């Protein structure tokens, strides 16, 4: 988003990555993506996983409502 960005670095500061792969989240953090969330239960029938050191995400619909300002 070059219109609102003051440079490429600013774009990464505003991105959100949600994943169940903690290695991928760590790599994204190393690359500069600031907002990282780990899916706690990637399989709805499986056990919840430990997402440390990443902030857990339990309810994607609730998270999108927060992002949309609802």
What's the helix-strand series?
Answer: HEHEEH
Cα end-to-end separation:
23 Å
What class would the helix/strand composition place it in? alpha/beta
Give the spatial strand order of the biggest sheet: 1-2-3
Report the principal-axis shape.
Answer: flat
Strand content: 15-25%
The major pleated sheet works out as: 3 strands, parallel
Radius of gyration: 14 Å
Protein described:
This protein is of the alpha/beta class and 70 residues long. It is built from 3 helices and 3 strands. The longest helix is centred in the middle third of the chain and has 10 residues, at 22-31. The model has no long low-confidence stretch (mean pLDDT 82).
Descriptors for this entry?
alpha/beta, three-stranded parallel β-sheet
Task: List the SSEs and their pairings.
Layout: H1 8-13, E1 16-19, H2 22-31, E2 35-39, E3 55-57, H3 60-67
Parallel strand pairs: 1-2, 2-3
Summary?
The protein is an alpha/beta fold. It has helices at 8-13, 22-31, 60-67; strands spanning 16-19, 35-39, 55-57.
């Amino acid at each position: 988003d070059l219109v609102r960005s003051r440079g490429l670095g600013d774009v990464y500061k505003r991105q959100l990555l949600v994943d169940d792969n903690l290695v991928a989240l760590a790599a994204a953090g190393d690359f500069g993506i600031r907002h990282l969330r780990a899916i706690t239960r990637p399989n709805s029938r499986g056990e919840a996983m430990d997402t440390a050191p990443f902030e857990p995400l339990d309810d994607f619909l609730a998270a999108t409502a927060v992002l949309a300002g609802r």
